[in-house]
Write a structure and sequence with these properties.
The protein has twelve helices and no strands. It is mainly alpha-helical.
Length: 237
């Protein structure tokens, strides 16, 4: 009971801090002050709050630089090697805004917003125990299974980031259907790939692919010091 009370108190403190930080992000006018606010949220270990502050700032025309793409949300030692750490970050930023406890109306859970059925399948394939509770309680567990699912999509689509990301959001069957309806972007030139993305019939998925590819370039630069948007769109992995 005492442990539950402590968790409840901690959650209440986090909620109050979140309200305070978001309110300040709406009212501060100096870019340096807003950047400092995002940096303090990041220093607290709350990457979700840091990102929320950065997005509020962006909506007001204030750029906080790389603070809008924080690191640290995926715990050190997490096995994201199959998909790559940069891609896992890119998807997590778009899926949950780095909120490890996020649960969608569709039931997707945690950092990379995994449906329990998908997570169970990935856990089985990796030979680890499945726990629905850990999807929102253990960011490393969620990111490991999410990266495994991302890697599965990359293999399915021959390394195409565009198709893998579309499949992650809308389901691989729809991504396959769109290649039949609009042509296959694999092996196509840059203009054709961009046109293919623009023809994705789901507004959410179209925007999702664009945002995740943008995120991916930022995180590649942050983690490896290089990026290649044209190469990633055309050649894939």
């Amino acid at each position: 009971r005492l442990r539950r009370r402590r968790r409840s108190a901690a959650a209440g403190d986090a909620d109050r801090a979140g309200f305070f930080y978001r309110d300040l992000a709406e009212r501060l006018t100096a870019p340096g002050e807003v950047a400092l606010l995002a940096a303090r949220a990041d220093a607290r270990g709350d990457r979700h709050l840091a990102l929320r502050v950065a997005k509020i700032a962006a909506g007001r025309g204030i750029d906080v630089g790389l603070l809008s793409h924080p690191l640290g949300a995926i715990p050190d030692g997490t096995d994201t090697a199959e998909a790559g750490e940069a891609l896992a970050y890119a998807v997590a930023r778009q899926e949950s805004e780095f909120n490890p406890a996020a649960v969608s109306r569709a039931g997707a859970r945690g950092l990379l917003q995994l449906l329990p059925g998908t997570a169970r399948d990935m856990a089985r394939k990796r030979g680890v125990d499945f726990s629905a509770d850990r999807l929102t309680a253990d960011a490393s567990y969620n990111a490991t299974l999410g990266a495994a699912f991302l890697a599965e999509q990359l293999r399915r689509f021959d390394g195409s980031y565009v198709l893998a990301i579309a499949g992650y959001n809308a389901g691989p069957r729809r991504a396959v259907e769109w290649t039949k309806r609009y042509g296959d972007p694999r092996g196509a030139d840059l203009d054709t790939v961009v046109d293919w993305i623009e023809r994705i019939p789901f507004t959410e998925t179209r925007s999702y692919v664009q945002r995740v590819m943008e995120n991916y370039q930022v995180y590649k630069m942050r983690l490896s010091g290089r990026f290649d948007i044209a190469g990633d769109l055309v050649e894939g992995r």
